[in-house]
Amino acid sequence: MKKEFKTRMTSPSRRDFIRKSSLVGVAATLGTAPRVVGAVTAPQKPKSVGPIVISSRNGSDSVLKAMEIIQSGADALDAVVAGVNLVEEDPNDTSVGYGGLPNADGIVQLDAAVMHGPTGRAGSVACIEGIKYPSKIAQLVLERTDHVNLVGKGAQEFAVMHGYPVENLLTEKARKLWVRWRETLSSKDEYLPPHDPSEKDIGSLYDPVKRHWGTIHCSAIDLAGNISSVTTTSGLAFKIPGRVGDSPIIGAGLYCDNEVGAAGSTGRGEANLENLASFLIVERMREGDTPEAACLYACQRIADHTRVGHLLDDNGRPNFNVQFYALNAQGEVGGAEIWGGKGKFAAANADGGFLVDLAALYTR
Ligand code: ASP
Q1: Beta strand pairing status for 261-267 and 254-257?
Q2: What is the residue range of 273's domain?
Q3: Is residue 301 part of a domain?
Q4: How confident is the model at residue 65 (pLDDT cuts 50, 70, 90)?
């Protein structure tokens, strides 16, 4: 499966096609007549052009998996959840599911959300511990409860009720990174990183371990033209216990409207939470923006709303990054990030996987 994707990724003609296309996008790839984006008006029955799957860059296998499932006739929601499960169970991905970096106390707390276009329903879990596949639990919240969001212990108990085991999600790799973060956090506390007993200034020996973000978002249009989305993450590494990021918040980490399209995010969740960017992107597409233009609009909105000193660079621009990924009901795809120039995201259609350039609000 990986091989097939790599072939696609390195195909210059595919990359060029995606970069150069604006209105017709993937619809043209699929041999369907291009539609005018601005023609999307009143709510209608699904008229989406599929199948198509998009995800953040870490989902190159996920988009292929989701597409395979869609080709078998499955609903887009089942497909995107199965796709991101590959990353949730991957011990080497330190930003999602099993193997994700823990909170400041060394406990892995996961966030995930799903949204199902045909029913307009959503489900999510936040700060869930010990459950390897939070996206599956978010889907269960959607399908087997009359709620939208379950958090913490309640979310875990709900998962156990449905037969999911509570497991230790902290891998040795993640534990060691957490210990190193703790020991290099301050040279004025009692935690000491490895050092020579003769060393007088232990703190100056090490660069602090930087906290980092990471998440997978995946959206798809299935053979019936229905749209669904999922976002799943271990969130900000070494976060304050109990911190909820943007990923499990409907409208922030993802949003999906069967008549219009879907959007999702990765990056600094707090900025997205304060701007509900995924909802904003879908609404911009409803008004006629292409997916890429809508994602850039959301980046600009965040930049405009970032006003506190510690989040601004010397030129008054955000000193953090956020990425957005979107598709519309016409099958066009696009994405953008605040800081970039070289970023890409993963996608797959009936012909296989490929990469798409992320537009950038600012480049260095
Ligand atoms: N958006 C996620 C969060 O803030 C993290 C990420 O995507 O890197 O929890």
Answers
A1: antiparallel
A2: 14-30+46-93+211-363
A3: yes
A4: very high
